[in-house]
Amino acid sequence: MELNEIFELMISIKKAQKDPSSPVGACYSLQQYLGRDGVATLGECLSDGRYVIYAASKTKEIPSEHCGFPVVCTEYYDKWEK
């Protein structure tokens, strides 16, 4: 990958993060809500084609849906803090 392609990709990701209606933006928004003691990441699509956000938090409740995307709550592991 050339340097210009890398910068274009970085710009595209930043734009997607600002749009909570995109999967990347919804995931980023949930991560901001969860803060330092939580984690959110995109996972495999459901059979209907929707993206899924997987999330865990030590102190905050995980919503079942965020910005129109389904959220799957996973266990919080203490080893994440290390």
Can you give a write-up of this model?
With 82 residues, this protein is α+β, with helices and mostly antiparallel strands. The chain has one domain. Helices cover 33% and strands 23% of the residues. It is built from two helices and four strands, in the order H-H-E-E-E-E. The chain has helices spanning 3-17, 23-34; strands spanning 38-43, 52-57, 65-66, 69-73. Strands 1-2-4-3 form a four-stranded mixed beta sheet, with helices on one face. Strand 3 and strand 4 form a beta hairpin. Helix 1 (3-17) crosses helix 2. The longest helix is centred in the first third of the chain and has 15 residues, at 3-17. It is globular, with a radius of gyration of 14 Å. The mean pLDDT is 90.
Any idea what the shape is?
A: globular
How would you classify the helix and strand content by structural class? alpha+beta
- The topology string of helices and strands comes to HHEEEE
Note the main sheet.
4 strands, mixed
Rg over C-alpha atoms, rounded to the nearest angstrom: 14 Å
Strand order of the largest sheet: 1-2-4-3
